[in-house]
Amino acid sequence: MKQNLLKTNFLYRTWDGFPHVIRFRFRMDRPVNGQALYSAVQESAARYPYFCIRVERHGEEYAFLPNDAPIPVFQGEKAVCLGSPEANGHYLAVAYRDDVIEFYMYHNLSDANGCMPWFRTVLYLYLTRAVDPALSSDGVNLPGEPFLPNETEDPYASLEIPDDIEPLYTMEPVPVFVPDTRYAEKPGRADFYAQADRNSFMALARSNDGSPIVVTTWFVKEAIKRLFPGRGGLPIAASIPHSLRSGLLGPNNYHDQLSPIMLRYDERMEKMPMDRQFTVSRGSLYLQSSWENMLCRIRANVAFSDSLERMATVDQRREASRESVAQFVENPETMCVTYPGNTQWGSLGSDIRELYIHT
């Protein structure tokens, strides 16, 4: 198997209007000290050199090079363009305002699970400067420490996929409800934050055969039903990023390893009581995320990546990449629901009030 999947994903899975950036918003328990944060971010780079890269174009090829320039740390809400001179060529950045710290990451550099250790390191280095010099470093990767097992390896390098393997379950695409484009244009993007009591939320899931992602998606679906009652019978569909780490190199690996799976609420599903909807949804996610399905998905992605590598020019690769996802861009799911899991913050937890992920 030719190993170019990570490279082609990084280079060709973004374009104008689709920056593919994820943003992590931490609300702290006190106003942010910008000088301490800047110092912490720069020190963290020594532990995570694989996040500090720049890309140079040489004819029809690209080179990935170390980036020793400062990681951008800025005050306010206006983001920098990742990879640009404004960002010193970096594909990550940090912003702060009031009591908020925001991390920006190019999604094809890493995913939520892959970059959480960096957040933990930055926050530890920041808090020891700004709040408590004696803060415990348990569970924190510190500058100068060696990499963890499989932290930097290519997760696909040693993967073998049998030629005769077939998907266990396939959800065929159908037209789904997407809000009118007017709602994207005016008033534009709006962020709303909701909180739920953890114990009550988990009790609801357990008592109704649910899971955190199934329950969250169901509540968002119910909100969409009320906001848009005239959907013309179209189902509401959710895309849910699924991590491949458990079948590849495990939790330490930093590379982006997500593959989307779907939930679809059609008229048949809506006739079921809530607990039955939870059961059906969990079963659908289980089948879609089976390792047989994921191997077939990886095989298709690698084959497409290989085809890009055989093209002569960068423009040809970009156009082919756009065309490959055109059906998803033109006919998107109603919503995307992502869930990074139950992240443990240890001694840092008392200084973090909230964490939100934006895409």
Description:
The protein has about 350 residues and is α+β, with helices and mostly antiparallel strands. It is built from 11 helices and 10 strands. The strands form 3 sheets. The protein has a 5-stranded mixed sheet with strand order 4-5-6-1-10, covered by helices on one side. Strands 8-7-9 form a 3-stranded mixed sheet. A two-stranded antiparallel sheet has the order 2-3. The longest helix has 19 residues, at about 110-130. The two termini are about 30 Å apart. The relative contact order is 0.18.
Provide tags for this entry.
3-stranded mixed β-sheet; alpha+beta; 359 residues; single chain; 5-stranded mixed β-sheet
In short:
This protein is of the alpha+beta class and 359 residues long. The protein has helices at 5-12, 34-44, 112-130, 182-185, 198-207, 212-227, 267-270, 274-288, 291-309, 314-324, 326-330; strands at residues 21-28, 53-58, 61-66, 73-75, 92-97, 100-106, 236-243, 258-265, 335-336, 352-358.
